[in-house]
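Example S7 (structure tokens).
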């Protein structure tokens, strides 16, 4: 590598080397979310021939280290990835006077990162072939979500959380307590960079309405939460009532089952007793009548026999 650089310097001194210089007037650029951005880049070459000119724009996302090519041009043939079609455009002056700038529309927070313009123009063998631009897409914080965690009772630890899903740069969070006159009162407690407020050994003087403010360079957004022992008492009362109703339901089920068992036992005992009572009854009256009716006919038969003997 040192040999190549030394050779390039020697050739440039003797007038036999072709050098290229790529520059950009931009180093850091901010753009609002949804806006458009012109990434400026140009080159100067000691050779006038641009038949073999190659232009590349590469992008490294802020939250990633992988390189992505978003534009490639060689011999006046442009290549744009599918995800950038309709968003990436070339300015009218592109290709003239060494201008190789590009434009990108509908910028999103995922478009924040490092953009590099690279130009190759053979027979150039040395020089500065790249220029980089840092882009940050700005977005105001979204409405934060506030929540209460812990046992809201005197002497306990209570944690308040606040978080915005969106916001670039990442928002910072501040908490204040609002008194009865809606005046903002400072809080003597630790607030983490992620919006967590810890209130240790809470007292009645710390009950009330709390407001969280999410802030970045693009704006602010707030949310509020009520911290009161009455709300906790209501939760406890609801839990007690629910437990009592559950016990009552269990008692009703047990009573119903016991009643059904008792009913079946009574029916099982009553059936054999009824059968035994039916078997001990006297013969029906019709049997006695038939016997009485049969006796006279027997006596009359004997009378006829006596008369015959006489």
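Recovered sequence:
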């Amino acid at each position: 590598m040192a040999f190549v650089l030394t050779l390039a310097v020697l050739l440039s001194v003797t007038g036999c080397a072709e050098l290229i210089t790529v520059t950009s007037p931009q180093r850091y650029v901010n753009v609002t979310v949804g806006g458009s951005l012109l990434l400026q880049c140009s080159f100067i070459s000691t050779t006038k021939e641009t038949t073999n000119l190659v232009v590349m724009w590469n992008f490294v996302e802020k939250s990633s280290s992988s390189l992505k090519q978003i534009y490639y041009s060689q011999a006046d043939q442009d290549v744009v990835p599918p995800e950038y079609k309709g968003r990436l455009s070339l300015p009218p002056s592109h290709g003239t006077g060494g201008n190789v700038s590009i434009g990108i529309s509908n910028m999103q927070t995922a478009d924040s990162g490092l953009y590099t313009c690279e130009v190759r123009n053979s027979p150039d063998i040395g020089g500065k072939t790249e220029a980089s631009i840092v882009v940050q897409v700005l977005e105001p914080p979204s409405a934060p979500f506030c929540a209460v965690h812990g046992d809201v009772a005197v002497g306990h630890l209570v944690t308040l959380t606040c978080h915005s899903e969106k916001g670039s740069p990442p928002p910072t969070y501040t908490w204040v307590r609002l008194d009865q006159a809606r005046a903002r009162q400072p809080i003597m407690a630790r607030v983490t960079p992620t919006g967590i407020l810890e209130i240790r050994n809470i007292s009645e003087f710390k009950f009330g309405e709390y407001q969280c403010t999410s802030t970045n360079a693009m704006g602010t957004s707030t949310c509020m939460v009520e911290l009161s022992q009455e709300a906790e008492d209501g939760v406890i009362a609801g839990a007690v009532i629910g437990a009592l109703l559950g016990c009552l339901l269990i008692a009703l089920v047990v009573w119903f089952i016991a009643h059904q068992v008792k009913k079946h036992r009574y029916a099982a005992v009553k059936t054999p007793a009824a059968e035994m009572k039916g078997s001990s009854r006297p013969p029906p009256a019709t049997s006695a009548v038939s016997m009485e009716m049969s006796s006279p006919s027997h006596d009359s038969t004997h009378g006829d026999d006596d008369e015959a003997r006489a």
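Notes on this example. The mean pLDDT is 80.
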